[in-house]
Amino acid sequence: MNIIIALIIFSIIILFHELGHFLFAKINGIRVNEFCLGLGPTLIGFTKGETKYSLKLLPFGGACIMEGEDGESQEEDSFNSKSVWARMSVVAAGPIFNFIMAWVFALIIMLSVGYDRPALTSVREGFPAEEAGLQKGDEIISMNGSRIHFFREISQYSMFHPGEEVEVVYEREGTRHTVSLNPKMDEETGRPMLGMNGSPYRERGSFLQSVSHSFYEVKYLICTTVESLRMLITGKVALNDLSGPVGIVKAMGDTYDTSQSAGGTGLAILSMVNFSIFLSANLGIMNLLPIPALDGGRLLFLIIEAIRRKKISPEKEGMVHFVGLVALMALMVFVMFNDIRNII
């Protein structure tokens, strides 16, 4: 059951991503030859108008196959016959639709259970927060200029900037104060900490607050993904820590079981919606990376074309994307093997 739920969520997120490409292709007069969910041989399909809609055997991935996307077609409704700006909009639409979906899911969570205010429930004795005079009830406004909207952003900042001095702006009884805190090593966890404690419980705001905090939720996840990639590139996170579809499915299954045991089906569904926010925002960011074969790699070539005002050779671009695709497939195999090893 857990696997089925995970596959449904994956399918919805990928389908919405490809829908972005599909709709903007149609808007720009580009013929879509096939719109499919999954990879491999076709299980079922039908043709309507100029487009074949199909479901593939392997339940991962999807595609919006446009006429002339590979640069070979000279038809008027082919991808490469359109202006560079039209093509950029089509390529960027997929990741943008992922961010839109993440915001919609975040709004559902905000309206259902609210958000975790960055208000302190206590400060740890002997740690910088207490020494600087912070108290229960103080609301954290910013850390080193980064606006704080959720309490978990405090932990996020500390995790991505371990040991760094931080300027904290907080509000008490309508008045804002600024203090500088130097993290202190916690012997129990072995990590530098500021000593600020908050509540994991959420509170609901007004409809407008829910709308705005939905944007903040997506921003929080985007920042988390970007900072995690930075740590991976700088060697602070190992490749073995990466998780692929197998690991994500297991994590979703564990989350579903835990939530169902704790609060029933309703809480389990909300936990899956919350997981979907992360997956959709993550997919949007990963696809925007300037890596060949991904949307970001294609956008990079289009940006270069816009600057040069001259198309790059389709053969050369195709070769770069092919090499990128091979490298990505190799990485996927490594990550999948790593997931299976960790599960076993």
Keywords:
344 residues, alpha+beta, Pdz3 Domain, four-stranded antiparallel beta sheet, 8 helices
Shape call: elongated
- Strand line-up across the major sheet: 5-4-6-7
CATH class of one domain: Mainly Beta
Largest sheet: 4 strands, antiparallel
CATH architecture of one domain: Roll
Structural class: alpha+beta
CATH homologous superfamily of one domain?
A: PDZ domain
What is the H/E order?
A: HEEHEHEEHEEEEEHHHH
Strand content: 15-25%
Instruction: Provide the low-confidence segments as ranges.
Output: none
Helical percentage = 40-55%
Count of DSSP H/I helices? 8
Total strand segments: 10
Can you tell me the CATH topology of one domain? Answer: Pdz3 Domain
| Cα-atom radius of gyration | 23 Å
* Straight-line distance between termini: 20 Å
**What average pLDDT do the residues reach?**
86
